[in-house]
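Hi W.,

Here's what went into the run:
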Amino acid sequence: MSTRERALLEEVAALLEAPAHRDHPLHAALERLYHHHLEQRDRLERMINIADGFQQSAQQDLHATRHQLERQRRRQRKLSRIADRFQDLLHERNQELADASTQDPLTGLANRRCLDDHLASLAAGAARHGRPLSLAMIDIDHFKVINDRHGHVAGDRALVALAESLRDGLREGDLCGRWGGEEFLLVLPETRLDQAKVLVARLGDRLRALDLALEDQGRPTSVTASIGLAEYRPDEDYRATIHRADQALLAAKREGRDRTRCDAG
Amino acid sequence: MSHDLNLPGSVSTPAIQSDWQAGRLSMQGDSYPENSFDLFDQVIDWVEAFLARESRPLTLALELVYLNTSSVKAMMDIFDLLEDAHEDRRAVEVVWHYDPRNERIAELAEEFKEDCSYPFAITPLEVPA
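Here's what came out:
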């Protein structure tokens, strides 16, 4: 209640109390008006209180809802984040499986299945466009001796080093795969037999120059390779080309190893 | 206890075992079930029942690997149940074992652990060399 209102009410109350005004013709009407005002004021205050109460509880509700929303949002973000990461994981797993099915686990070179797929599509393209394609089958000479003398762990290490040396000696677009034990197959697209000869001569030198470092005394360990070459013929199955490269390799071995032989065909 | 769970697990569902007497719930494997609600409702029911009827400690032993989104959601719900119990001063804990060859799983377990104020251990499994 404001001071002005209080002062007015006190003034009216005092006038009504004063005996001198009791018989005044407006006394009864003023007295009713005075009480009516007091009642109205009470009502107004109650209404304000109730309205305030409602507002407060609405505020509290709003606050709680906001809090809940914030919590839900946090949860949602966390859920998406974790789910995304699991998806990445799945993706990586798939990639690993794809690698495992196309790579030789020891050397990381293409495995036989990968070589087959690659050759099938290359051969189809070479036949269609009349482009040359050559294959080289490489066998490391007397590799069994390394395994027998130094053990299989050392033998594996030597294979990894040889594979790396072969891979590094290739041109872009060439593919080197592990065909079997110590046998490697080179797939040389856009390459005629005479060009392949130059390339594998260089590779043969690389292998010869490689020190496999298997001897404790620091004496270098080196190996040689026998290589069979064949060029793809547009009318044949690529497996026939592999067979001819293999036959050329056999000839190289029969003639004393450490040499390259071309398919006579 | 008759209401214990013992689900063998499959390619897409984790193996689940509960031991009411020991206060222990274990889950292993991948989880991308066709109906994750059917699967996890049983687990959530078991955890809720245990927390409601017992006052003994509860241990969650996990060896989960891959989880799809609805399984992640279900696991978050279970961890929330444990968080509520922990706020009621109940002894609860999670031990998440992972294959040390797959550190990514440990990182994901760490993500789950965030916001959890009860003991949550992430430990590598012993793998034969």
